[in-house]
Amino acid sequence: MTALFSRPDLPCDAHSVLRLQENLQRTVTLSGGMLTENTRKETRGVSAMLWKDGKCGFSATSDTSEAGAKLAVAEAQQNLDALCPERTAVPAAETRHFDYAAVRDDAAQAALLELVRAVDDRLQRLCPSTSGRSIQLETLGTEKQTWTGEGRSSSFLLPRTNLYITLTAEDKNGRPVTIRDSIGGIGFQPKVIPDAAAADALALSIYEDLMQKRSAKAMDYGELPCVLSGCTGILIHEAFGHIAEGDSVLAGSVLAGKLGQPLVSPLISATDFANEAFGAAVPQPRFLDDEGTVCKDAPLLKDGVLVGYMHSRSTSLAMQAENTGNAWAQTYSHLPVVRMRNTAIHPGTSTLEDMIASIDRGVFVKRTGGGQADQTGKFMFAVQCAYAIEHGKLTHALPDLVCQGNSFRTLKEVTMVGNTVEWRHSSMCGKKGQLIPVGMSGPAICSVASFYGG
């Protein structure tokens, strides 16, 4: 995307942001070898936001010419004037430019279709005892150019590509059992998944668990000791992250007024990271948010103590806290709201083998499905791959389960934290009608939760 204007003129008597944004999506899906989706979408426009004395004027247009940008600024100015007619000059900030661009080698749609067909062919050979299969290749991308009246600017391109594989087989009673998982990363298809062989390890891993699931046996469920692996990112995001967003805190979430209090196990620390974590890039690196604020890490928990929230311009002003740059919008026409970026529990010192060995009777959660949580910290998510733990060893696969509990109790009962983390590149987060890609991660944890048959 190339801007049709260089640096726009922005008002100096208000915090002002002009954002040129393009969203793109490429999707190819095969189900049972048949093409069911082949789409290529792009949305582009420009928006202006002016902010003064806690009030905001906003306007957006699909006209990305210089005239369209000037119109958006003028309309945002009119909206702000109606709310805040008298204003004084805003002090200039340090002039600073952020430039982040992942690779630009977007693939033609025909190449995406060819790759998915090749993956499908390999699946039939690698995974013969299946009754159904689905492969989806999807790229979601955002390109932005942002300017602020205080001197900051950024150029940003972040495509994210994921390959999803769903395999189905029949159990001993002829009923279908299914497992779905994905691989992915930052970039377009040629960088992230260069050929069909790149999917082999994922396919074989799913297939191995699926064959075990065909002969799954139930156990006496209820509240049980467990090792949560591959789902702690969902747990910290859904059950804790949302109630630590500044607007949720102001609305009365259970974390309101709890800063400085020990809430969970001292083994747990958690952060919403801006662009790097644990010495490596995060799935959704952010540098300048959609309100023109420089992005900073937002520590949430340290050694079990609540140490902070995530903030936008309005929530930081209302709570007299540092603005962490957590304001994001799905498209150019959306108003930014407080959102998570890359939320993770920090790694500990235990191995997965040690955690499993510590449980006499419980559940090892390996792969999960969707999840949700409410403002009180209660959570629930689907478990599509789990194993029984008996006398410190994995014994047999379990049928589909539901895991639920209270995030504070589950995190308070943590006795061991794994020493490795794995980021998920396929995570999406919905809030106030806006759906955006996010990063989430965490090590395996040993704790207690409630399980029920799915």
Descriptive overview:
This protein has 454 residues and is an alpha+beta fold. It folds into two domains: 199 residues, 2-Layer Sandwich (PmbA/TldD fold), CATH 3.30.2290.10; 232 residues, no CATH class. The protein contains nine helices and 25 strands. The strands form six sheets. Strands 1, 2, 3, 4, 5, 6 and 7 form a seven-stranded mixed β-sheet that branches. The chain has a five-stranded mixed beta barrel with strand order 8-17-18-20-25. A five-stranded mixed β-sheet has the order 13-12-9-16-24, with helices on one face. A hairpin with an 8-residue loop joins strand 14 and strand 15. The model has no long low-confidence stretch (mean pLDDT 92).
